[in-house]
Amino acid sequence: xxxxxxxxxxxxxxxxxxxxxxxxxxxxxxxxxxxxxxxxxxxxxxxxxxxxxxxxxxxxxxxxxxxxxxxxxxxxxxxxxxxxxxxxxxxxxxxxxxxxxxxxxxxxxxxxxxxxxxxxxxxxxxxxxxxxxxxxxxxxxxxxxxxxxxxxxxxxxxxxxxxxxxxxxxxxxxxxxxxxxxxxxxxxxxxxxxxxxxxxxxxxxxxxxxxxxxxxxxxxxxxxxxxxxxxxxxxxxxxxxxxxxxxxxxxxxxxxxxxxxxxxxxxxxxxxxxxxx
Amino acid sequence: xxxxxxxxxxxxxxxxxxxxxxxxxxxxxxxxxxxxxxxxxxxxxxxxxxxxxxxxxxxxxxxxxxxxxxxxxxxxxxxxxxxxxxxxxxxxxxxxxxxxxxxxxxxxxxxxxxxxxxxxxxxxxxxxxxxxxxxxxxxxxxxxxxxxxxxxxxxxxxxxxxxxxxxxxxxxxxxxxxxxxxxxxxxxxxxxxxxxxxxxxxxxxxxxxxxxxxxxxxxxxxxxxxxxxxxxxxxxxxxxxxxxxxxxxxxxxxxxxxxxxxxxxxxxxxxxxxxxxxxxxxxxxxxxxxxxxxxxxxxxxxxxxxxxxxxxxxxxxxxxxxxxxxx
Amino acid sequence: xxxxxxxxxxxxxxxxxxxxxxxxxxxxxxxxxxxxxxxxxxxxxxxxxxxxxxxxxxxxxxxxxxxxxxxxxxxxxxxxxxxxxxxxxxxxxxxxxxxxxxxxxxxxxxxxxxxxxxxxxxxxxxxxxxxxxxxxxxxxxxxxxxxxxxxxxxxxxxxxxxxxxxxxxxxxxxxxxxxxxxxxxxxxxxxxxxxxxxxxxxxxxxxxxxxxxxxxxxxxxxxxxxxxxxxxxxxxxxxxxxxxxxxxxxxxxxxxxxxxxxxxxxxxxxxxxxxxxxxx
Lengths: 277, 327, 280
Ligand SMILES: Nc1ncnc2c1ncn2[C@@H]1O[C@H](COP(=O)(O)OP(=O)(O)OP(=O)(O)O)[C@@H](O)[C@H]1O
Ligand SMILES: [Mg+2]
Description:
Strand content of chain B: under 5%
CATH superfamily of the largest domain in chain C: MetI-like
Structural class of chain B: mainly alpha
Helix content of chain C: over 70%
Helix content of chain B: over 70%
Distance between the termini of chain C: 50 Å
Mean pLDDT of chain B: 86
Number of domains of chain C: 2
Order of helices and strands of chain C: HHHHHHHHHHH
CATH architecture of the largest domain in chain C: Orthogonal Bundle
Largest sheet of chain C: none
Number of helices of chain C: 11
CATH class of chain B: Mainly Alpha
Mean pLDDT of chain C: 91
Shape of chain C: globular
CATH topology of chain B: MetI-like fold
Number of helices of chain B: 13
Oligomer: heterotrimer
Largest sheet of chain B: 2 strands, antiparallel
Radius of gyration of chain B: 26 Å
Order of helices and strands of chain B: HHHEEHHHHHHHHHH
Distance between the termini of chain B: 40 Å
Radius of gyration of chain C: 24 Å
Bound molecules: adenosine-5'-triphosphate, magnesium ion
Strand order of the largest sheet of chain B: 1-2
Low-confidence stretches of chain C: none
CATH architecture of chain B: Orthogonal Bundle
Shape of chain B: globular
């Protein structure tokens, strides 16, 4: 009731006039009017933005503002959660990934994802972990055919030198940082165009974090990266574009330099200077 | 009014995508259908069991009607069959079993969950589980050759001479009979009741215990006033689960109950249970009516155990789901 | 301080009852020791090489063994496993992965009820289903009876082990663009292997000792193992027959057979528990 009473006042002020957002010149993904729910609770409220090709886009915002939910909408992982619903459009190369008839499994092969906590498959060897995205979508694959892909992916993930002698040991025998890089290698192995990373470094020590940041800058040449992070320095260091989310809304989105030096919105400024809440 | 329309607009677009997502790949569809088929097979087996037993028992049901349950004769030659002594024997032996098993099991469960230190608890639990794993025919073998002679001589003699004024303890000591069957059943259900009660007791929150101890209660008072009342329905469930097992237990009972169609209060007397009757006569039975009567006996047993098991499941589930809340 | 006297009484009562609880546990274990002790002592006394290499002899002739019955037990358990494992596993997969909440609890309920059906009744069912229509006792009908006993056990343990695989694994696999059935077969089942194998082995051990459902399905055979559509002998069945026979020679063989069966059944149980405990 309260919400209904207050809503007209807010909308009367700016019915359609959303703050003009910058957009990268070459977008691989265009999000249009995206909203997402858990059950009846709205978590992402009408977000529109473009994500630049072969760039790193960072999403920052306070805990619970919907960052994870938002990036999960980009590869149709949100609908996996019970009660998860989405409306609006996510255009990848001009095609709506939510259009009827689009296979979510297919989308997820083009838009890979790395989670906050490394989710190595413990029953598989390191080799099989990296190859799993390939082997589990084919009927039959020979190890010799996979050798190349596995090595390439592990090299890209800066893990090859550490594991090349123990590829047949279980994936769970690695350290936390190594496991996270293994997950990245696993995501790279299926050669997606875009990699979504949900706080990939939050459980890692500074050295592993640094390694993963270097890795992101490295793979940016071939891939588009979207990263969620709580670490503002990290966003400032690695990303080209930064978006600030608050309570499910995109408050500010522009070049990282601008967001961190001349934020347009008061709330963004409060957040990045740590004066928030 | 406004709220309603708003809800409609927020719900609808999501539904569109849900529909799009609800069309999984061919492989997924086939796989889920196949697993569904096998899951339904379980239900089908249960239904088939009920139907097949009913069909084959039909001749007897038709002939005897309800008097099957109240008649005491079992005469294959004159083709007169009645279930009463078997039902009586089943209930009596299970009752004896429970009377012995319940205090022992609850005591063991209290020991395992409240008293024993970790190093003692694990091996004890392990051993009790081993007792549950021993095949019933072996317990029957042991019962027949080791326990029955012991029951006959010191135990039944002594009971007869000291408590002989009660109708339960009259008559010659055969050894085989209701008493032996009851004791064997006790041995077989103790591990079940113990294991389930132990789990149920462990599900009682620590705070309940601490609150009682803080009031100055002794350990035993804590157990009887905090732990046991808290998990009462789970304990009852455990006992009923044991009862379900005892009612249907076949081999061990068949080997020590003596298999004679008796309806007497004397615990020393040989008797039968439904399961032992079916086990010992089925392969020799001939004629639709005789076989039908045995199958109707099985049907009666099925009905009883079904009821008992459903009650037990409901009770145990409810008290374990109290713990499951934290999951 | 007038509580002191009552306190002493309460303390003694407390001690007494706690000791009684310990005794209850001890009684249980004493029963186990008695049963195992007699089985082992008698079993070892009467056990010899002939017992596992010779076929049974007719009444009157001494000697002989249970070669065919031992073989028969393995065949029956194998047959039951071949039928029950696919059914149980796939049903378990359905319960853990595909079933909606209502569907799952209905099927789970049916499985629990089926698991609680006395094994003798399962035997009667197999008789009505296969023996009567085919006019012959058979190994097949016995295998089906044992399978019906195994199915709910396998299904429920499989379901529980599959549920223990963390959701993050499913999520990670989904994000790799793997379809659901490949995820289940390639990621989730390998992650649950220990639990599933434990459940299967325990079910096998349970079924290996089952006797009641064999009496009027397998029947027993004096001619060894001759096929699946004719009667077949089994170790537990022979224990039952020989124990109730009046011949002391046969009774001795029953003890030897019991010894073998206990080693088989408890052996599986012990190994399985040790392995699964170590994994924890
Ligand atoms: N499975 C779920 N069911 C219901 N509500 C959920 C679920 N997951 C998240 N939410 C809610 O959705 C909102 C956004 O969650 P989300 O995980 O996207 O936030 P976040 O920005 O990633 O936070 P964090 O920085 O802590 O990871 C939160 O308010 C949360 O409570
Ligand atoms: Mg998050």
